[in-house]
Amino acid sequence: xxxxxxxxxxxxxxxxxxxxxxxxxxxxxxxxxxxxxxxxxxxxxxxxxxxxxxxxxxxxxxxxxxxxxxxxxxxxxxxxxxxxxxxxxxxxxxxxxxxxxxxxxxxxxxxxxxxxxxxxxxxxxxxxxxxxxxxxxxxxxxxxxxxxxxxxxxxxxxxxxxxxxxxxxxxxxxxxxxxxxxxxxxxxxxxx
Length: 192
Known about the structure:
Layout: H1 11-16, E1 18-26, E2 31-39, E3 45-50, E4 71-80, E5 89-94, E6 99-108, E7 111-115, E8 122-127, E9 134-140, E10 145-150, H2 152-157, E11 161-171
Antiparallel strand pairs: 1-2, 3-4, 4-11, 5-10, 6-7, 6-11, 8-9, 9-10
């Protein structure tokens, strides 16, 4: 006979892994079979989420007057599973047109949030990470992207952790200025 089984991983299991087993026993003949499979995530996962749309997956709208000092804010979640390859990791954040990076901060598993302080377009920051220090470097590039470099040693120490990068972008001067006769203005910032 043929036996097939399927299983859908929960969000928690996708992140933490799961062990599944099936057993078959027959009273008609001596048959005992056990199959076991273990799923451990090995792919690094990254998501970008608007602060007003934690669920993600759709566009959001903001009233300019509701923005904190004219800043758009979103987060980039990066999960490094325990089975991730031990190699340098580079995250590139592409800012929407008509905005400029104002601030970048990061935390590990929602603890110890620190801001990258840029000097000449480069910033370096170290986190304690439970006694296993990790140092990351962020670079503001001329093309409007921000590159975050996570060296191999840091990747090794961050396995099983979620890094959350908070990106604050200032809408460039003049972009939201009303033209003569306009009473409202809508601007689209594509954040991909």
